[in-house]
Amino acid sequence: MKRILVSLALSCLALTAVAQEPYSAEVLHKQAPVVPVYMVFAGDTIRFDRPDFKERMDRELISYTYMHTNTTLILKRSRRYFDQVGPILRKYGIPDDLKYLMAIESNLDPKALSTAGAAGLWQFTKSTATQYGLEVSGEVDERYHIEKETVAACKFLKDALAKFGNWMTVAASYNAGQAGIRKRLDDQRQTTALELWLPEETSRYMFRLLAMKMFFEHPTAFGFDVPMDERYPYVAPRKTVTVSGPIESLVDFAESNGTTYARLKGANLWLRSDKLTNKNKKTYEILIP
Predict the structure, then answer these.
(1) Which of 23, 80, 104, 172 has the most crowded CB, counting CB atoms within 10 A?
(2) Pair 37, 47: CB distance under 8 Å
(3) How many CB atoms are located within 10 Å of the residue 282 CB?
């Protein structure tokens, strides 16, 4: 018993000694990056020499530095989804920087569903999705179809650019809606959303986008180091099957194509049921992993 008490006493002394030692610089998390003098986003230069712009940017840089779980996962997922989305953006003439909208919308989670009902990587609501040609039903929801939702996002962004003329205002409209931003620009007599008095979410949204670009270009400055070979790769499907009629059982369909129902659903998140009724005999392409 005496030996146990002595051991406990020594342990307490050791813990006290550790607690009294000052933290070294290595123990503390890396500080957030310093706000740059300016940034170029999608060809537009945004300067941070104004105190309000500098403070708004600083807030978002701090957020990304200390948001460990989400930030790490965004980096891990980026290789897979940027590889798929990048060629589509280029095809539609959308600057590559706009892919970061997708990152702040969904944290690059293709299954993301917001409390407001926005879904997929690009977080379309049902009304906006159907406006831009996506099918949304009980069995098919193309907001979860990476290629089709990205095409819809490109169309939205091109429409917004034609209305507003600069990409930061386009970004604000992606969050607040084109009509809402148009009204505020007219009411406040401004030409860019950066100069608007906006709801907190939209006001932060533009600077979150800029901070996200900085984060991807210099992750180690934020204290994160995820090498490319540790980021999840995009694995192309083994084949694609075109269907123009009903599928009574996707379990049977998966087995007949040499895969499992779970893997089939994972590769085709837009299939929302265990069957495809397809009364209108539409043509769908189903990926086979």
Answers:
(1) 172
(2) yes
(3) 12
Residues 88-115 have a mean pLDDT of 97
Asked if 142 and 136 touch (Cβ cutoff 8 Å), the reply is yes
The widest CA-to-CA distance across the chain, in whole angstroms, is 84
Per residue in 189-211, pLDDT (tens digit) is 999 999 999 999 999 999 999 99
Closest by CA to 167, choosing from 55, 45, 60, is 45
Identify the pLDDT of residue 31. Answer: 86
User: Are 211 and 60 a contacting pair, CB within 8 Å?
Assistant: yes
The average pLDDT across 209-231 equals 94
**Residues 50-74: pLDDT tens digits?**
999 999 999 999 999 988 888 999 9
